[in-house]
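Sequence design from tokenized structure. All designs in this work follow the same two-part layout: the structure record, then the generated sequence. An example of the structure record is given first.
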């Protein structure tokens, strides 16, 4: 495979920067780039389409324990980009003497090398639009399609160099019933499969038909429940706010503090890991440390922590390539044995919850959280969907939801990619099954 132009340009800029350093100076250089197609749908038709191609550098200059950084937008012309980098270097040289030394600055001076290219062929946008249009005939569909390669790079004055480039697509959509009810769905990955998309859309069509029934409002209480992968994702995203962070655990501020202290446990069915291998996230961090697969929870027991460079310096721990905010970037949960076509029968009478929203902690030290049901949540009787649920609030503990009350996990898992396009497309992901719960507590 020939070397991508972006990689060659980044290599050239890093090489120039090494030659431009003065005595005692060190640098780290991060690269972010994308070439993305964006298509917005409304009422099943294309309303807006466009292409975004952009790239930027994050230059950090270090000297005598002081460090400062600047963002540099690249234009693709080598001479212009080199001049922009030179101007950023000069500005940082003026800034450094004004800053105090950072006691928690920890640099990785190993000359590691990593290069991953996952440039899978994506379908032509016109073909995707045609498939979506055909699948959405007769439906009020609102959605957003994003696709294309994302590039991340890292280089340092110590000789470290990393490059990660991967293609992906993400179609995030909602279907609206004429009565105002709606459901939400997503299809994402690296290889568009028409059959898989058709199945996902057919499932959404079937659920949409039940939204015509009168809305069911339940009394507060405990109910059996099934959490679809999208609903489970909301819970795990909240749990990831400090749940696996070395800093949060050291400061006694983690929602999973009791788990790590050995005074509470999660279900032996639960296995969570940060899946770097084969994921869309790079095998290196923005701080210049190689990343590897980490077992975060093993059969309900605490595993490895996410340790950033600063936490490593502050708490005398080995850094393992975690992001500065120490949250998972490619979280995966091991599958269970519950077959997809057995979910409703195993649920019997209870709640089928397609989505959750507005989650937050009601008691963080106790890992107790609250939130609302949303989109495609149904009341189920005798293994059959009966009626859509009115939005309800739940309040429960992670040690119940993912612990004593976790009955089964599905064999099939769903890949979800980040829908964030703030400043750029993001490459975070989750790979999750659905979860059958013996009990979920609704409060109002």
């Amino acid at each position: 495979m020939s070397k991508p132009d972006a990689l060659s340009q980044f290599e050239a800029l890093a090489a120039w920067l090494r030659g431009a350093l003065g005595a005692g100076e060190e640098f780290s250089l991060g690269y972010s780039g994308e070439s993305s197609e964006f298509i917005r749908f409304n009422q099943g038709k294309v309303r807006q389409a466009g292409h975004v191609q952009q790239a930027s550098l994050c230059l950090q200059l270090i000297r005598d324990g002081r460090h400062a950084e600047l963002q540099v937008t690249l234009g693709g012309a080598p001479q212009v980009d080199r001049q922009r980098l030179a101007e950023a270097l000069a500005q940082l040289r003026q800034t450094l003497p004004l800053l105090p030394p950072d006691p928690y600055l920890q640099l990785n001076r190993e000359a590691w090398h990593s290069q991953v290219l996952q440039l899978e062929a994506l379908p032509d946008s016109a073909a995707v639009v045609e498939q979506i249009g055909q699948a959405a005939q007769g439906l009020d569909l609102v959605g957003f399609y994003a696709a294309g390669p994302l590039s991340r790079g890292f280089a340092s004055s110590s000789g470290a160099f990393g490059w990660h480039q991967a293609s992906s697509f993400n179609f995030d959509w909602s279907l609206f019933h004429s009565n105002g009810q709606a459901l939400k769905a997503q299809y994402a990955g690296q290889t568009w499969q028409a059959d898989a998309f058709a199945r996902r859309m057919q499932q959404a069509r079937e659920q949409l038909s039940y939204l015509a029934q009168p809305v069911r409002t339940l009394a507060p209480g405990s109910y059996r429940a099934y959490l679809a992968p999208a609903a489970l994702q909301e819970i795990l995203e909240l749990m990831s706010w400090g749940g696996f962070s070395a800093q949060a655990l050291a400061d006694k501020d983690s929602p999973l503090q009791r788990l790590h202290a050995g005074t509470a446990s999660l279900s032996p069915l639960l296995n969570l890991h940060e899946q770097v291998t084969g994921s869309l996230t790079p095998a290196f961090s923005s701080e210049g440390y190689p990343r590897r697969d980490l077992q975060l929870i093993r059969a309900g027991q605490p595993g490895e922590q996410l340790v950033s460079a600063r936490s490593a310096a502050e708490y005398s721990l080995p850094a393992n390539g975690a992001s500065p905010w120490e949250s998972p970037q490619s979280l995966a949960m091991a599958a269970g044995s519950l077959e997809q076509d057995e979910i409703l029968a195993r649920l019997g009478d209870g709640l089928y919850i397609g989505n959750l929203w507005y989650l937050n902690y009601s008691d963080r030290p106790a890992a107790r959280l609250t939130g609302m049901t949303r989109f495609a949540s149904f009341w189920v009787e005798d293994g059959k969907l009966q009626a859509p649920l009115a939005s309800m609030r739940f309040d429960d503990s992670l040690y119940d939801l993912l612990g004593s009350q976790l009955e089964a996990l599905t064999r099939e898992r769903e890949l979800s990619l980040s829908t964030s396009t703030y400043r750029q497309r993001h490459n975070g992901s989750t790979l999750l099954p659905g979860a059958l719960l013996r009990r979920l507590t609704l409060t109002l």
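The chain is about 25% helix and 40% strand. We note this feature because it recurs in several other targets discussed in the main text.
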